[in-house]
Design a protein that fits this description.
The complex is a heterotetramer, with 2 copies of chain A (about 350 residues) and 2 copies of chain B (about 325 residues). Chain A has about 350 residues and is α/β, with parallel strands linked by helices. In chain B, the strands form 3 sheets. Chain B has a 7-stranded mixed beta sheet with strand order 3-2-4-5-7-6-12, with helices on both faces. In chain B, strands 9-11-10-13-14 form a 5-stranded mixed beta sheet, sandwiched between helices. A two-stranded antiparallel sheet of chain B has the order 1-8. Chain B starts with a strand and ends with a helix. Classes of the chains: A alpha/beta (about 350), B alpha/beta (about 325). Chains in contact: A-B, A-C, A-D, B-C, B-D, C-D. The complex binds thiamine diphosphate (2 copies) and magnesium ion (2 copies).
Chain lengths: ~350, ~325, ~325, ~350
């Protein structure tokens, strides 16, 4: 069932992946995956209703995200891209915190500074995301170098997509990781698309995982629809990293079921047939079937799982929507630890006549 | 002529340039089958084929680097950077290479690439889909910088850019991509570089703006008119070359200047304008020069309307300048 | 105290910072066994070991990207970019990431990296070993920009940078790395940010300069003294934060301003200074504000002495400004 | 004798390299290599005498540069780094033109704009070099795409060093080349050093050539001291490129005998023993021995070759040193096709009082 495949043997051997997670762990994973799916769908409709400004769905990538997140420890550091909502949840960010960010209310951990999906949760070692593609990759390597220096037995994980393998920071980050043998897991969710560009036009290498070899460490392809495979590959990569064996690149092959974001219309560049074929591999359904076969899930429990997810979402949304809006004067904060004289001046000007301070 | 939007005008400008010259081709992310995330390249793949409308891998470094190579070889590439905020992976190619090829080769290798990028705020794009960093490019010797604020100028400046022999950074104010419409001449319509547009005549104060700041500047001027203040509005159109003559002449007439841009104040293009005026229109100036700009903060998401200069903030600054003298 | 050179002062500042705090470490190309191409890191590998003086692969993207990751984790990396001209592969990390981490995370992730780079012309370095692009960084909200012009300031500003909580671009005027010497306090010597240095008092005109332009400004002031013109010389020391109060006060006293920098004129930092003065010292100004700057060309090799502002060009501009009023 | 080794089989097979160049061709190569060696040594002493401002020697890399250049055609486009003086010579730039550039006199093709070694010769399709590492790589790919579009049966060649494999443009350039299957030869002279950084600390991959695989095309390692091997590998790469088989990465393994540049002191980071070992493989001596063994060279002819080289250098230097210095007002030219009003103003200011226009 577990299908972590060593594509190439680089600087180190990829040993056989460990045993699949326990049934309890898999049921836990299922709950997270359902919660992510329900949240995702709700967010798409919230955006259509104008209640949030933007959303980038992760549907199709639940097993990849949850499987990876469950294989990590709280003290590990996660460097996400903008699609890793499920990772944030598994690491302990509350759904309400998620909605606070999507709305950008007064309670939002990042103070309404960024577009929806650009989460950051210090308490969960979930470094704040940014939009430029790939930049988090070399940063994750740097944090791993810092952990090495501090002798902290942790790993850093960079999340990124197939498109990001073309970025400058992919090249720089993986090269530094190879040279300094950093405890880093490069977790590439190959969802086959970078907006409208299909994977095969992103690069001519047969797999993305094999790119690791150019940097002297192993790359692994896993079936990203398969929770067990992902969990196994990340567990092994984590073990390698913390035992000083260096970094691993994992390519989790998935498919983006939804649009790139709410600004995107995928019918312009892909066919329904293609999408339907991919949907046959729905990771949520797959895990459900596995758990059912294992006698861990029946229809009644499943209904409860979904109902609970819906309830959690409704509750969190209500909470987030009832929070006050952000104080306009916070716009001048956090540029620096302390405001410079110039920022003080700009803030004073705004304060003295807020009517004239805005964009109306 | 019917009215079209600014982004449609860009699209027509591209099509016109490609019809005129088979050496013109486009490179960028999602510009082909997807027609561009703002639809600026809609229909062009169909008309001109995949050899001339090239969907590239996700690498601005590669896009501008290969475009430079094409230009050296003799083609006329037009590059789309999906958002100006994502131009930085290509910054090395732009400032170290594109801008300096003609100079460093002693004129042997001109390098004519047009780099198009939607820019600016007001679309709820947050930190990375909103920035206005035109000053970086204006400060880089060897680059021209054009910014249209009307559909006719969008097409006209774009065609001038394509026919120019030098690299051009062509910034499209995405906030008014669809909200501003206007008539656009058919065919080879060109608007020269270095000639500012007098948007509105006035005698008490000169308002300088460009891109998406032109409409609020005009709105402010209209409000002020009711208060008895006559504001001239000038759209710079190109920052490099700058129509210094027009800028100075306007202040010689009005005696007062208010400069408007979305970019952060410190070292924004407004600083350059103020410096030009403080040197060359000094004896005509009757009041301090005011700048109405974005704040010296990154571009916020939830509070973008606090950040962005608007008609009220502009009018407020004008009143202060007029009160001053 | 004995006199040491500016680059030696940088070296001592680095050593002091590393002795103070084991979290301080260095990253860069050729900084370890080679001691830096200008020897700024000479001896540090030996004293602090390869874990803290890290020779990196040839990738400024990787250097700044990994330094950011280290800073997020709690270390205090100081990065050396071999020449400022080679910072552009890291520009995305600097302007999109380093400068915005604190803001975009709502204060959760401060990101304190010091980026050191030798910069400026006068060493026969041609296009790519001479540029002065401080304005790019001053225009980027979230970055501080410090530029010493004496050995004492080199050490003092560097230690302030290391103890600051925000990202600092620390530009070292390589032309005077060895030609300027001076006494430098031992130990934890710090020079605060945002406080300009009054180099020379004067009453007829204010000369504003920084980095390697301070010595020719002083030389010009000395020449002018013989002609009966009393020039004040102010060294800005930090462009962000800017000591606006000192700049404005000086012009309130002298009534005239001449701004000097090596960078190209258009949108250089001189534009910002002129804009500040045209707004805040307007009523004290008796003459047009003059800028003495590099030309709006790439930096030339054979003709660098034509390009670079020197004492004569500065004096010439001052005379014109004094004649004017 | 020819040792082009296919390291990996990527998108295409690397076929056996063609026969070595004819004896006549190798004698021609030898003349170029000797000329390069003599020029190189003269330049180092000129710099010490202050007659040129800077120099970056190529000694040790003569076979790589001459072997590659001889395998190309005039209509091919060369994108050099700053160390490719021998390539420029073989492609037809005169020694006098070389010295004109090193001096930056009034006749210099690039008008004294750049440091020594940053040659550019339009007539020889030798694109002007720049200092930033790697930038020429993606440009070479773009020029190849342009040639494809024009249906010109040429190749573009990017020259770069081992250090440049870490650059952004290496990654972007090779990726685009793979995706668009461009007729590009990536010619990496691995001289084992990037200033003071040894090759093995630049990246952890076993060879540089194998990095090509990450982009879906073949990489080849050749002994860069061996003229025949280099010539063979480039000939084959050129054949592949012009037959639509796509790009090739060639790693020519050489050693930098001299300092990185006249600003560098290699004793700070490498031992004499190391250098002496490398010098045993001197490519000039090697080719001399081969030609002697083949009966194409004897001591008398060899002396003539060296004497002729020295004479050419002396003559070219004299010519270049007697050329007038560059007109100061040219500083304002070539920023744009025509000077903008601002440049006109700056030029007028300079003209009106040149004494005040300069840096004194
Ligand atoms: C440097 C940069 N260029 C362009 C963009 C615009 N953009 C946003 S997402 C995206 C595609 C990313 O694809 P991939 O890395 O596969 O991630 P996915 O969205 O599929 O999760 C692009 C081109 C960007 N954000 N950053
Ligand atoms: C982007 C950039 N960073 C740093 C430098 C400084 N620098 C000049 S040459 C060099 C080493 C280049 O090594 P390699 O690519 O192996 O070429 P080689 O000099 O050995 O021929 C460095 C670091 C530069 N020119 N460009
Ligand atoms: Mg993707
Ligand atoms: Mg090398």
């Amino acid at each position: 069932m577990t299908r972590a495949t060593a594509v190439r043997r680089g600087a180190a051997e990829v040993t056989a992946p460990p045993a699949p997670p326990s049934n309890e762990r898999r049921l836990e994973a299922y709950r997270w995956m359902v919660l992510a799916r329900v949240t995702d769908e709700r967010c798409l409709s919230l955006q259509r209703q104008g209640r949030i400004g933007f959303y980038a769905p992760l549907s199709g990538q639940e097993a990849a995200q949850v499987g990876c997140a469950l294989a990590l420890r709280p003290e590990d550091w996660v460097f996400p891209a903008y699609r890793e909502m499920a990772v944030a949840l598994v690491r302990g960010a509350s759904l309400t915190e998620i909605f606070d960010q999507l709305i950008g209310n007064a309670r939002d951990r990042i103070k309404g500074r960024q577009m929806p999906n650009h989460f950051g949760f210090r308490a969960q070692n979930f470094v704040v995301a940014s939009s430029p593609i790939g930049t988090q990759i070399s940063q994750a390597v740097g944090a791993a170098m810092a952990a090495q220096r501090r002798r902290d037995p942790i790993v850093t994980v960079a999340f990124f997509g197939d498109g990001a393998t073309s970025s400058n920071d992919f090249h720089a980050g993986l090269n530094f990781a190879g040279v300094f043998r950093t405890p880093t897991v490069f977790f590439c969710q190959n969802n086959q698309w970078a907006i409208s560009l299909p994977r095969e036009r992103q690069t001519r290498s047969a797999t993305l995982a094999e790119k690791a070899e150019a940097y002297g460490f192993p790359g692994v392809v896993v079936d990203g629809f398969d929770l067990n495979a992902v969990y196994g590959a990340v567990t092994e990569a984590r073990r390698r990293a913390t035992s000083g064996e260096g970094p691993t690149l994992i390519e989790a092959q998935v498919y983006r079921f939804g649009p790139h974001s709410t600004s995107d219309d995928p019918r312009r560049y892909r066919t329904d047939a293609q999408l339907e074929a991919a949907r046959q591999q729905d990771p949520v359904v797959r895990l459900k079937n596995e758990l059912t076969a294992a006698g861990k899930l029946d229809e009644a429990l499943d209904e409860k799982v979904w109902a609970s997810a819906k309830e959690q979402v409704a509750h969190a949304l209500e909470e987030a929507e009832s929070a006050p809006p952000i104080d306009p004067r916070t716009v001048f904060d956090d540029v620096f630890a302390e405001r410079t004289p110039r920022l003080e001046e700009e803030r004073r000007a705004y304060d003295s006549d807020p009517a004239a301070g805005g964009g109306r | 002529m019917t009215e079209i939007t600014l982004v449609q005008a860009v699209n027509r400008g591209l099509a016109e340039a490609m019809r005129q010259d088979p050496d013109v081709l486009l490179l960028g992310e999602d510009i082909g089958v997807n027609g561009g995330v703002f639809r600026a390249t809609e229909g062009l793949l169909k008309e001109f084929g995949a050899e001339r409308v090239i969907d590239t891998p996700l690498s601005e470094t590669g896009i501008v680097g290969t475009a430079i190579g094409m230009a050296l070889y003799g083609l006329k590439p037009i590059v789309e950077i999906q958002f100006l905020d994502f131009i930085y992976p290509a910054f090395d190619q732009i400032v170290s290479e594109l801008s300096k090829f003609r100079y460093r080769s002693g004129g042997q290798y001109p390098c004519h690439v047009v780099v198009r990028a939607p820019y600016g705020g007001g679309v709820k794009g947050g930190l990375y889909h909103s920035q206005s960093t035109e000053a970086y490019f204006a400060h880089t010797a060897g680059l021209k910088v054009a910014i249209p604020s009307t559909p006719a100028d969008a097409k006209g400046l774009l065609l001038t850019a394509v026919h120019d022999e030098d690299p051009v950074i062509f910034l499209e104010p995405k906030r008014i991509y669809r909200s501003v419409t206007g008539e656009v001449p058919e065919g080879d319509h060109r608007v020269p570089f270095g000639v500012a547009r007098l948007v509105r005549e006035g005698s008490d104060v000169s308002l300088f703006a460009y891109g998406a700041m032109v409409p609020p500047a005009v709105e402010a001027a209209e409000t002020l008119e009711n208060e008895g203040i006559s504001a001239e509005v000038i759209d710079l159109r190109t920052l490099v070359p700058l129509d210094e003559a027009a800028v100075v002449a306007s202040v010689e007439k009005t005696g007062r200047a208010v400069i408007v841009h979305e970019a952060a104040r410190t070292c924004g293009f407004g600083a350059e304008l103020a410096a030009v005026l403080a040197e060359k229109a000094f004896y005509s100036l009757r009041a301090p020069i005011a700048r109405v700009t974005g704040y010296d903060t990154p571009f916020p998401y939830a509070l973008e309307q606090v950040y962005l200069p608007g008609a009220e903030r502009i009018a407020h600054a004008v009143r202060a300048v007029v009160r001053a003298a």
